[in-house]
Design a protein that fits this description.
Largest sheet: 6 strands, mixed
Shape: elongated
Strand order of the largest sheet: 6-7-8-3-9-10
Radius of gyration: 36 Å
CATH class of the largest domain: Mainly Alpha
Strand content: 5-15%
CATH topology of the largest domain: ABC transporter transmembrane region fold
């Protein structure tokens, strides 16, 4: 595909490379021409000067053209790598959780780095060796045959068919072993990522030695698989040297006989041997080409496997655009995750009007997070219907749908940037005043004053320098600054104390008037103010109403509320 995009660049590079190769064939003829004139004592000073000047001009022209093809070809390889990496990144961003369940992060990183380097090498050095091992070799053979002797040329090239058979076998072995080596490297990458992310857990459970041993075993596996590749790689050069040596032996031996028989001149023999010397690189290039191409093909197969993975959730061909969101209706929604047969939502029916706050409570695993993932269209296979303003969710533009929603998940994702940049992720052009305001809404101002550089404090890898409660409030501020039509808080205040939670809820009630809000929580205090509270049990709505109605119903909600009130009272008494 990239060759279609940049075909002019590659046509120019290959044409220039072939032209440089053709010019490179002229100097040996000049040498042979000069030797014959010396042998027959016909070389004059004028002729010698013409030969020297011509030689120097050829050097200058050859150097200029070589620079042009080298720069054009290898910059094209860099463009290919950048273009493919951009395609991969765009593809990653479009993928759903199903994709990330199948492919591990370390493996995806290996394909985005090592495999792309192999493809880039194939597109640069591979094209060079392809041209040199084909066109340049054909040019040399033609010059040797047409201008010197076909008998001598054919005799000297007898080892070529043997070389082709051997190189083909080497190539197949390289492809298979390189695929295994790259897979092992991806597994090792993933292991390193998990160890870095979980370093605090590893230390807490005193598993450093076990983790080191696990890593050592994986590096040993990567080493052994790469050694298997190197073993085949190491066979290329000696094999080529033997075959080249045979060509030289035949060329010199049979060539000397032809000189004695006056079939060719001494100058022709010298020129032929120079050409034979020049033929060494193309013959080596054949081996290198097979090696590089097989590595590149293996990497390309791995990259294409990712790029050819179709997204489970696709944008409609002719999406419907909605001007202003007025209502969301869930009708008999049933959903189960891919590769499972358990319904995480079952016959879920609910109408949500603009401006309402919906509280969602229930036991762990009741389906609260699943409901939000379905709303975000993260998974296919949703039965029943979810409509926005009466339009089925599947007919809406994905970007518009997700643009309506500000989502704060259970596990807050912090980017390795400053607090300011993490909050601005919700609104790129947010001013300091806006950031200050949303930090106030998230009850984060007191914390920001205690941090060494305030808003410009680096949060570290995955927010390692912040506490759980601080990360939750930065994530809340990031969602608040977006001011979305639909705000989803998925147990987003579990790590903050009751007083802080009450302050945030108070700010939410004031700021989210005429905006739709979903709050899932384990603490009843987080949803008491909601217009509707639903109790989920095994993906079904078991209770629905406001706080007073549910308390009067005397079901699970009331039982949970009283238990939490009792626990709070005990805590206060102990304090």
């Amino acid at each position: 595909m990239v060759f279609k995009h940049y075909w002019k660049r590659y046509v120019f590079a290959i044409t220039a490379l072939m032209l440089a190769s053709a010019i490179g064939l002229i100097p040996p003829k000049l040498v042979g021409f000069a030797i014959d004139h010396i042998q027959f004592e016909t070389l004059t000073a004028k002729l010698l000067m013409i030969l020297i000047v011509g030689y120097l001009l050829l050097i200058i022209v050859h150097y200029t053209i070589s620079f042009l093809w080298d720069y054009t070809l290898f910059s094209g390889a860099a463009i290919l790598e950048r273009w493919t990496r951009s395609r991969l990144m765009g593809h990653f961003l479009r993928m759903t959780p199903t994709f990330y369940g199948k492919y591990k992060t370390g493996d995806l990183m290996a394909r985005s780095t090592n495999d792309l380097k192999s493809i880039s090498l194939t597109a640069g050095f591979g094209i060079l060796t392809l041209v040199d091992s084909s066109s340049f070799m054909l040019m040399l053979i033609a010059m040797m045959g047409f201008t010197i002797s076909w008998k001598l040329t054919i005799a000297a090239l007898i080892p070529l068919p043997i070389m082709a058979i051997i190189m083909n076998k080497y190539g197949a072995a390289i492809h298979a072993r390189f695929m295994k080596a790259q897979t092992a490297f991806g597994d090792m990458n993933n292991s390193v990522l998990e160890s870095i992310r979980g370093v605090r857990v590893i230390r807490a459970f005193v598993q450093e030695k076990q983790d080191e041993k696990r890593f050592d075993d994986m590096t040993k596996d990567v080493y052994e698989k790469n050694i298997e590749v190197v073993k085949i790689d190491a066979l290329f050069e000696p094999t080529m040297k033997i075959l080249v040596g045979l060509s030289y032996t035949v060329g010199l031996g049979y060539g000397a006989i032809l000189v004695f028989e006056n079939a060719i001149t001494l100058g022709d023999l010298v020129t032929f041997n120079v050409y034979l010397g020049m033929l060494i690189w193309p013959m080596f290039a054949v081996g290198e080409l097979i090696n590089i191409m097989q590595r590149g093909n293996a990497s390309l197969d791995r990259v294409n496997e990712i790029l050819n993975y179709a997204s489970d959730v696709k944008n409609p061909d002719n999406p419907t655009h909605v001007q202003e969101l007025q209502e969301i209706v869930f009708h008999d929604v049933t959903f189960q995750y891919p590769n499972t047969n358990i319904n995480r939502l079952a016959h879920f029916t609910l109408q949500v009007n603009r401006g309402e706050t919906i509280g969602i409570v229930g036991k762990t695993g009741a389906g609260k997070t699943t409901l939000f993932k379905v709303m975000l269209r993260q998974f296919p296979g949703v039965e029943g219907s979810i409509t926005y303003n009466g339009i089925p969710m599947e007919n809406l533009d994905l970007e518009q749908l997700r643009g309506w929603i500000g989502y704060v998940p259970q596990d807050q994702i912090m980017f390795s940037k400053t607090i300011r940049e993490n909050i601005q992720f919700g609104k790129n052009d947010a001013t300091d005043e806006e950031i200050y305001r949303v930090m106030e809404l998230a009850y984060f101002l007191d914390d920001i004053k205690q941090l060494p550089e305030g808003q410009d404090t680096q949060v570290g890898e995955s927010g390692v320098t912040l506490s759980g409660g601080q990360k939750q409030r930065v994530a809340l501020a990031r969602a608040f600054i977006k001011n979305p039509e639909i705000l989803i808080l998925d147990d987003a205040m579990s790590a903050v104390d009751g007083k802080t939670e009450a302050k945030i809820i108070q700010h939410l009630r004031r700021e989210r008037k005429n905006k739709t809000t979903f709050i899932a929580a384990h603490r009843i205090s987080a949803v008491m103010h909601a217009d509707k509270i639903i109790v989920l049990e095994n993906g079904r709505i078991s209770e629905i109403g406001n706080h007073h109605e549910l308390m009067a119903a005397g079901g699970w909600y009331r039982e949970q509320y009283e238990m939490q009130q009792l626990d709070e009272g005990e805590v206060k008494h102990n304090e």
